[in-house]
Amino acid sequence: MRRWRSSSQAAASAMFQSSRASKSSTVLAVVYGRMAWDDVSPTITSGCHNPSKGRFLHPTQNRNITLREAAILQGFPRRYRFNVDHGKEAIALMIGNALPPPFIAAHAGALKVGLRKASASAAWRTWARHAAVPMADRVTEEQRSRNMAAVRSSNTTPERAVRSILHGLGLRFRLHQRELPGTPDIVLVRHETVVFVHGCFWHSHDCKRGGVPSTRPDFWLPKLQRNRERDRASVASLRELGWRVLIVWECELREPKRLARRLARAFGI
């Protein structure tokens, strides 16, 4: 009986050791060794240039993957230039610690859409508050009618001021291209950008000039509402065609230097 127990224990021990060695070799093969052409890559870490730090051997060649290959696997553009002044270790650390750029680009795009929607919603709520409290009208109804009839739709003073700023930045443009949705005031073909110069009153800007006259509110509210709807439709159509849309508000021209800086940033100048 003792002899049977002894042999049984020995066999169990041998099976355990064999299973342990098999599991160990499997783990080693997963954690270390070669990559495969037909399999996903391992997580790229800061040790990607060292085969002892992970499964970073080339699939067929007897070498470790290069830092450039590691960067491509991590999602960096092929022509991305790393600063080599601090050595290979610093580059490997940058690659390993980076969130994949395509993931960040997708995340940033989603954030941009969300912020744009939130901004549009906030602007609408602000306009609604202005509309609920009509601004005081200091002129007679007849004078108001004459004033509105005298407003031009193109080549206005604000338009000419914005053109002057853009020209001073070295930009060249076309005017009032009727074949584009909304007939943009300024078209910069090279930059695939259009600029609308909006009057604060006519387009219901969130400023002191963007209120509704107390005279004939039943006329002005629907009219301004139609203007806003037409603006949104024009911007949406232009973006579908691949144009970038910039809007300059009349009140921004009170600080032309600040406006010039904003436009310079918009065009990377």
Sequence-ordered SSE layout with sheet pairings:
Elements: H1 2-31, H2 67-74, H3 88-97, H4 101-132, H5 141-149, H6 157-168, E1 174-175, E2 186-188, E3 193-198, H7 217-240, E4 244-249, H8 256-266
Strands, total number: 4
How many individual helices? 8
Task: Work out the strand percent.
Answer: 5-15%
Overall pLDDT confidence: 79
Strand order of the largest sheet: 1-2-3-4
Task: List segments where confidence is low: pLDDT < 50 over at least 5 consecutive residues.
Answer: 1-8, 21-25
N/C terminus separation: 92 Å
> What is the CATH architecture descriptor of the largest domain?
3-Layer(aba) Sandwich
Fill in the CATH topology of the largest domain: Endonuclease, Chain A
Order of helical and strand elements: HHHHHHEEEHEH
Structural class: alpha+beta
| Biggest sheet details | 4 strands, mixed
The residue fraction in helices comes out at 40-55%
Structural summary, described in words:
The protein is α+β, with helices and mostly antiparallel strands and 269 residues long. It has eight helices and four strands. It is elongated. The protein has two domains: 2-97, DNA Methylase, subunit A, domain 2 (DNA Methylase, Chain A, domain 2); 138-266, VSR Endonuclease (Endonuclease, Chain A), CATH 3.40.960. The protein has a four-stranded mixed sheet with strand order 1-2-3-4, sandwiched between helices. 51% of the residues lie in helices and 6% in strands.
